[in-house]
Amino acid sequence: MNIQRIVALLKKEFTQLSRDKKLLPIILLAPVVQLALMGYAVSVEIKDIGIAVCDQDKSAESRALIEKLVTSGYFTVDYATDDYNDVRSFLDGNKVTMVIVIPHRFGDRIVGREQAKVQVLVDGSEGSTTAIAIGYLNQILLEYSSGILAEVVGTQHPLGGIDAEVRAWYNPDLKARNYMVPGVLVMILLAGTMNLTSMAIVREKEIGTLEQLMVTPITPTELMIGKIVPFTAISAANATVVLLVMVFGFGIPIRGSVPLLIGLSGLFLLTSLGLGLFLSTISRTQQQAMMVGQFFILQPMMYLSGYVFPVDNMPKILQAISWAIPMRHFLYIVRSLMLKGDGLQNLWLQALLLLLMGAGVLTGSILRFHKKLD
Amino acid sequence: MFRRLTPIIKKEFLQIRRDKRVLAILTLFPALLMLLNGYALNSDVQHVRMAVCDQEKSHESREFTDAFVTSGYFDYVAMPGSTSEAAAMLNNGDVKLALVIPPDFSHKLISGEQAEIQVLVDGMDANYATTIVGYVQAISLEYSRNIILKNLAKFGRGNYIPVDYEARIWYNPELKSAKFLVPGLIGFVLAITAVIATSLSIVKEKERNTIEQIDVSPISPVELIVGKMIPYVLISLVAAALVLTAGYFLFDVAIRGSLILLFFTTLLFIVAALSIGLYVSAVAETQMVAFQLAALLATLPTMMFSGFMFPIRSMPWWLQIISNMTPAKFYLVILRGIILKGVGLASWWPQVVYLAIFTSVMLFLSVRRFKKTLD
Fold first, then answer.
1. Which of B163, B308, B343 to probe by mutation at the A interface, max A CB count within 10 Å?
2. B187 contact residues in A (CB cutoff 8 A)
3. What is the pLDDT of residues A266-275, one digit of tens each?
4. How far is C-alpha A296 from the chain's CA centre?
5. A55 part of a folded domain
6. Which of A40, A164, A168 sits opposite B123 (nearest CB)?
7. What does pTM read for this prediction?
8. Residue A78 belongs to what H/E stretch?
9. Is residue A205 located within the same domain as residue A321?
């Protein structure tokens, strides 16, 4: 290894990067977009469910019920009709999620102390929204019923019930953002180093400049370092921006130790750089490197690591497989350190796994890289 | 024009065929994603580890606990003696949920007061916790309802719930998640493969300078673009067919509507997705830039904004506006219409119109930009 040659290589890489007027801005834009998406879009909290009301009764009672639905904040009445024949087109045309049909004599029955029934038609093709919408409705109708019952039996005879007082730990307001945004840090470190390093190396192969580099005195190790350092530096800069936005923009606290976070991020970089090198050894074109990286490494990792969907929900087999995925452990570290304030005494297992996997992947890839170039 | 077009298409096919790996990726990836999604992406929460700190141990408190166990969502794994013990379990991650039932629970219920229980939940993953809290509330509500009925009996009005409802779930009565995942997945897979594959294939020619050779031939930019797109349209159609077949055999998702309509709308969507890829390739000079742009313009937005994983209506208004940049959002409405609802053009023509306009604008923009760079 020769420091002078490495410096020369690094100069070349940074000159190349600064020449490409588009690459750097886009690399720096990526975390901003991801932060915005993970900060605002990723929530399963459901509100403003679009409904249609088919009020065939038009009584004071039916209007009171509709009023209750609207003021709950869960529903927005997008369409109102009194013709039952319209109902199908609302659901078929994807205009609303739910249609509530209030039948004739609804008000009369309530006044006459008989049971009144509404009909509810729900679009089952929208997944979890469907079940949640029914749950909300159930709650509102029971409240409405309780109000009427209080009149029937008198307020001096309460009818009881259960109040569930919910306390959420580590994240009292149950903000999805607090859990999702730390994931962006992981994604930026992984995608930035793995994809870009591999593409940068394969690019030299593809346009034929790798052969020119090989006839110079530069050794494979020096070449590798020259390729790894710039993108690691950029990813580190990106990660810093993400952290700052997280703390000052979104107000997500880092409860644990920041030096520990940085140190463990370094461990994770072993894996992602190793994967990048590995990709560069198995690909002849950038298209291959990118597609294998994106489709067969990044996407499966995203799904199996708990980045968006909790590991606890997966079938046992997938849960077992997810142990072998470094991203899962790093995600756990980042989230626990930030939200719970866990220290190394709680995270040593994950850290050890990261170290072992990272060292394994990196050594294997370096060996392969040398073999391919010699 | 056609005479010049055929050689380009032939060349592109030859290139794809030579690069067996890319071809394999383009056809296999959809199937892999399908499996991952079908099994990993399950929003139904099950086997939530639960601790119950029952400070009363009465008939009522046991009945209430039983309601959680029989719901099937919770695994009753621990019986802490005190609130602090329950808290420690939550801290260690032994349980996700702890119920604390107070010593006056049954007394309050019988006398008609509101009995307060404490629900401690691990809120780290807010989405997961929100779902759990939803279940807890549903079960408590059901139990409250029974209590109310019991207390009502004292007044001789045993079964009187003034307003009740009867729910009918259309299109997917068992609420199977595969039924709405499969259509979403088709949109997702097509969007990312189409955008990434076309953009890289054109930018590759730029980067290797072979585009100049094409430029000095009589081929016009439009011909080049069409020639480049056609092979990827065909590959994408094959991928869509594979996902549909897999959906039918693995997850039992049948197509209720017209296959012909499905074919043409899918074609329209593929062209829409390709037009984004085209725009990317007009802007980018290197494949690295193209890849980053494609990820920002296609992969991420399609995942977030197609309505496939997260409900768009719950997002802030400015994100709802941005979500219109994603053609997959409109295609998904069409797909759910055809596959799950079995409805025709009358129900989703606005989406078709939108896709057509979107595609025309994108194609226009990219061709204009291409002409500028090529001339």
1. B163
2. none
3. 999 999 999 9
4. 18
5. yes
6. A168
7. 0.83
8. strand A75-81
9. yes
Range of the domain at A140: 49-153
Instruction: Give yes or no: residues A96 and A134 share one domain.
Output: yes
A212 and A335 belong to one structural domain = yes
For residues A274 and A365, is the Cβ–Cβ distance under 8 A? yes
ipTM of this model? 0.80
* Shortest alpha-carbon distance between residue B359 and chain A (Å): 22
In order of their start, the domains of chain B are 2-41+174-374 (no CATH), 48-153 (3.40.1710.10)
Nearest chain B residue to A33 by CA distance is B296
What are the Cα distances from residue B194, in Å, to A190, B25, B247, B274? 24, 12, 20, 6
In a domain, A248, yes or no: yes
- Test B36 with A158 for CB contact under 8 angstroms: no
pLDDT tens, A294-329?
Answer: 888 888 888 888 887 788 778 888 889 999 999 999
Q: How many domains does chain A have?
A: 2
Closest CA to B304 of A331, A176, A34, A302: A34
Q: Spell out the alpha helix ranges (H) of B41-176.
A: 59-70, 83-92, 105-111, 126-153
d(CA B169, CA B173): 5
For residue B180, give the chain A residue with the closest CA. A125
- Alpha-carbon distance A94 to nearest alpha carbon in chain B (angstroms): 7
Nearest by CB: A124 against B110, B140, B172:
B172
Q: Which chain B residues are within 8 Å of A139, Cβ to Cβ? A: 137, 141
* Contact between chains at B164 and A89 (C-beta distance less than 8 A): no
Last residue within a domain, chosen from A122, A153, A184: A153
